[in-house]
Design goal:
By secondary structure, this protein is mainly alpha-helical. Helix content is 81%, strand content 3%. The chain starts with a helix and ends with a helix.
């Protein structure tokens, strides 16, 4: 970085020096040609184009000098920003940078725009609102990913609110929210309980519940079939799980607590079987329809002579 800054400073200094030389040379020539133009009328048409050319070169030299000076100042300020970020952290608000360096926020923002416009190789970035300076590509990529996730969550939340405000979709959206909450609670309880047997039961319960919820989301017309499941079976099961967690956290567990935990484990085993049966029942209509279609297709093949023997082309034509 130091070598880059030195190279850029040399380039800016070269622009500035060349501009100064050009101003002196072409400014002098411009004055001479202008005076000659005014004093020697016979050579008017000779000195007129020379005067114009020297005037243009004089202006270009001034622009080159100004460009070199501006670039040099911008690079020096950018180097200062990099130094402050390296000394403190990789992210700093522009207001804080103003407090540290004394440069105005607008000046800092303009410097960052010049960095992008001139494609300077400073590993320095700003957020989209130009409120924060970020040092390092990895930190900037992390910021972009965080922004992408934030925007995604905002879109999902907006869509969820739209569904909740739509009477035709509100019930289904409420089911989605409740189902995710139930899965989170089962997962949280499983993390709290060290016992292998109870953990296996909870994992099995979570897997079955997740499959039920996914099936309903893909087949919303079956939502009414889950009313008793969502209003009684699952809430009661969750109540038992959370009571088990409470008992398991006791430092001293008397006999009646141990018996209650055993009863809850047995209830969870029964709940797992019941929920798996419920999941199977959700597929009953579909599998029945498939079985019926398969039987009808088989009979059609038999009727058309396409099973059990070779196809009779002549008979088919008749």
């Amino acid at each position: 970085m130091e070598r880059f800054v030195k190279d850029k400073n040399r380039s800016s200094t070269a622009r500035f020096v060349i501009g100064i030389i050009g101003i002196v040379i072409f400014g002098t020539l411009f004055v001479i040609s202008l005076v000659s133009l005014l004093l020697i009328s016979l050579l008017f048409y000779v000195f007129l184009p020379l005067t114009v050319i020297f005037a243009i070169l004089f202006i270009l030299s001034g622009a080159l000098m100004n460009s070199g000076l501006k670039r040099k100042n911008v690079i020096q300020r950018l180097s200062r920003y990099m130094a402050e970020l390296s000394a403190k952290q990789e992210v700093m608000s522009i207001d804080d940078m103003t407090s540290v360096t004394g440069f105005l926020p607008m000046q800092i923002k303009n410097d960052m725009r010049m960095l992008r416009r001139w494609d300077l190789s400073f590993d320095l970035y700003t957020d989209r609102e130009e409120k924060t300076l970020i040092k390092g590509r990895s930190s900037y990529d992390l910021y972009l990913e965080t922004e992408r996730q934030r925007e995604q969550l905002a879109r999902e939340e907006a869509e969820r609110q739209n569904r909740l405000n739509d009477p035709d979709k509100a019930t289904f959206e409420a089911f989605r929210i409740e189902s995710r909450g139930i899965l989170d609670r089962i997962r949280a309880a499983n993390l709290l309980l060290p016992g292998e047997e109870i953990s296996e039961k909870l994992y099995r319960l979570e897997k079955t519940a997740k499959r039920i919820f996914e099936h309903i989301e893909n087949n919303p017309e079956k939502l009414p079939e889950t009313r008793k499941l969502m209003n009684y079976h699952l809430p009661t099961t969750m109540k038992l799980i959370e009571k088990y967690c409470e008992y398991d956290g006791l430092e001293y567990q008397p006999q009646n607590v141990a018996e209650a935990k055993s009863d809850i484990e047995k209830a969870l085993a029964a709940a797992n079987e019941a929920f798996e049966n419920f999941l199977e029942s959700l597929y009953h209509t579909e599998t029945l329809d498939v079985t019926t279609d398969a039987e009808v297709l088989k009979k059609m093949f038999e009727k058309d002579g396409l099973t059990g023997r070779r196809f009779d082309i002549k008979g088919d034509e008749k």
